[in-house]
UniProtKB/TrEMBL annotation:
A single Gene Ontology CC term: cytoplasm
Organism of this sequence: Candidatus Criblamydia sequanensis CRIB-18
PANTHER family the record matches: NAD(P)-BINDING DOMAIN-CONTAINING PROTEIN-RELATED, PROTEIN YEEZ
A Pfam family matched in the record: Epimerase
Lineage: Bacteria, Pseudomonadati, Chlamydiota, Chlamydiia, Parachlamydiales
Protein name, UniProt field: NAD dependent epimerase/dehydratase
Length: 275
């Protein structure tokens, strides 16, 4: 009997950790790359590499049962290519994936924009930046895929991703004696990468579809976060440049009550988990 096959579209920071988790469950994992030179390194983590080229037909996707769209852009200018173009490509090649039953896309809470107060999945998105507008368009395009065939589509709106090599302490070491834009009064919505991987597995195992937020319950202002983190790490606090607009907009507090009400538990919920 052949193994269940999963495909990771965008096997970077999050995708590689997800690949290791899936393989530990004896799932056969294939992953995409557009750069053939990266294939040997990628094969150290997955079972098969699929060369992903929008100008040509992708590799054989016929056995894929679950697809994880975890791609991350190189920068703001590549959002269109990373998200919308890939979503369009999936739509155009959906008939090449007759066994696909579940598609999970990792989006961002940035689609809620600068809204204030408590934000849930019932809150209407109000993206402010061009990149968050593209993410919302991608969500809508992927959700429509379930209209033409039996297919579960799940959107996970992630908070700010924290994890190995991306901890708050690592970031603040780079910020010492430097100015950072904003007042620091915006609310933080953090999520540890371990909880993201666990959340993706939970969605898959419980066949959940629809839209879910994924953030920890640790919500403080960014100024409070950086101040306490610097105190504990023995670092100098960064200086806030009040004349510049922060890249972390809004004072929204994004809750994950929807998915936790279904039994999922977020483990990383205190400052020490993110330092």
């Amino acid at each position: 009997m052949s193994k269940e096959e999963a495909f990771i579209l965008g096997c970077g920071y999050l995708g590689l950790l997800l690949a290791h988790s899936l393989k530990s469950k004896s799932i056969y994992v294939s992953a995409s790359t557009r750069n053939r030179e990266k294939a040997p390194d990628l094969l150290k983590h997955v079972d098969k590499v699929v060369f992903w080229d929008h100008d040509k037909k992708a590799g054989d996707l016929s056995k894929i049962k679950n697809l994880f769209f975890t791609a991350a852009p190189d920068g703001p200018s590549s959002y269109q290519e990373t998200f919308l173009d890939n979503a369009s490509f999936l739509k155009e090649n959906l008939d090449q994936m007759p066994n696909l039953r579940h598609l999970i896309f990792t989006s961002s809470t940035s689609v809620y924009g600068d809204q204030k107060g408590i934000v849930s999945e019932a809150t209407l998105p109000s993206p402010k930046t061009e990149s968050s507008k593209i993410l919302l368009q991608t969500e809508k395009k992927l959700l429509c895929l379930s209209e033409s065939r039996p297919l579960k589509v799940t959107i996970l709106r992630l908070g700010e991703i924290i994890g190995p090599n991306r901890m708050i302490g690592d970031k603040l070491k780079r910020y010492e004696n430097k100015k950072i834009p904003g007042t620091g009064e915006n609310i933080t919505n953090l999520i540890h990468v371990d909880d993201i991987v666990r959340g993706i597995n939970y969605v898959l195992e419980n066949k959940l579809d629809g839209i879910f937020n994924l953030t920890s319950s640790y919500h403080v202002t960014r100024k409070q976060l950086y101040s306490e983190a610097c105190r504990q790490k023995g670092l100098q606090e960064p200086l806030w440049d009040l004349n510049e607009e922060t890249i972390h907009g809004g004072k929204r507090l994004v809750t994950s009550d929807k998915i936790t009400s279904l039994g999922f538990r977020i483990h990383k919920n205190q400052l020490s988990d993110f330092l």
